[in-house]
Each structure stands twice: as C-alpha cells, then as structure tokens.
Amino acid sequence: QVQAVESGGGLVQAGGSLRLFCAASGRTFSSYFMGWFRQAPGKEREFVAAITWSGGNTHYADSVKGRFTISRDNAKNTEYLRINSLKPEDTAVYYCAASQTGLPPYDYWGQGAQVTVSS
Q1: Rounded to whole angstroms, what are the CA distances from 6 to 36, 62, 117, 119?
Q2: Nearest CA to 26 among 102, 112, 100?
Q3: Do the strands 46-51 and 58-60 form a parallel or antiparallel pair, or are they unpaired?
Q4: What secondary structure does DSSP assign to 57-115, as a single string?
Q5: pLDDT tens digits, residue range 57-90?
Q6: Sheet with 4-7: strands ordered across
Q7: How far apart are alpha carbons 40 and 25 in whole angstroms?
Q8: Is residue 40 within 8 Å of residue 17, measured between CB atoms?
C-alpha cells in the first residue's frame, strides 16, 4: 500500500532546473520500485525514470538521460526527480508511481504535478 503525492512542479524557463517531490504514506515504501511518468497534452503517458528498492540502480528514458536524476530517501518515504536543462518538450504532468515488481502495470499512482517549460 502506497499513497503518493507529488509536489514541486511549476513554470520554468528553458534551460532552468527544478526538483519534483513524491511523498508516499505507505510504510512499505522501501519494498517498491519507484518511478516517474509524464503525460503531455494530447500525448500518451510515457515512462521517464525508475529506481530500485535501495536506490542503487536507476533507469531513464533516452529523452531525459543526462538531464534527469531520480533518487529516493526511504527513511523519509520520499522519491525525487531532479530535472536540469529543461526543454519546452518537457512540459507535461509528471506522475509518481510505485511498482511491486518493477514491471508494468504500476500499482499506485500520485495525482500528478504540472511542469511547464517556457522558451
């Protein structure tokens, strides 16, 4: 059981940075793979990044490699997504998600946080 709430979204100029937070209420947070997805207007939801139980292994979509950094703090039940060098095409609603297996479908989802990148 994981209940996730995202925060940290907002309006940022291209080239800027921000950090998204995902606060999870489940006491078994550390047992889950955690991930970030995003959905742009009129587009399908896409995978962004994922992190293993301990945070020792990460995986990123090709479109965000080198710019996005996923991390987690199990003691604080929090997942993070650091976004650098923002591009207008990064504009989307970003969702925090938890998976028991690391494979789709993900079991729990946050409500989403809007990230808007201006040029």
Answers
A1: 10, 23, 18, 24
A2: 100
A3: antiparallel
A4: -EEE-TTTTTTEEEEEEGGGTEEEEEE-S--GGG-EEEEEEEESSSSSSPSEE---EEE
A5: 999 999 999 999 999 998 898 999 999 999 999 9
A6: 4-7, 18-24, 78-83, 68-73
A7: 27
A8: no
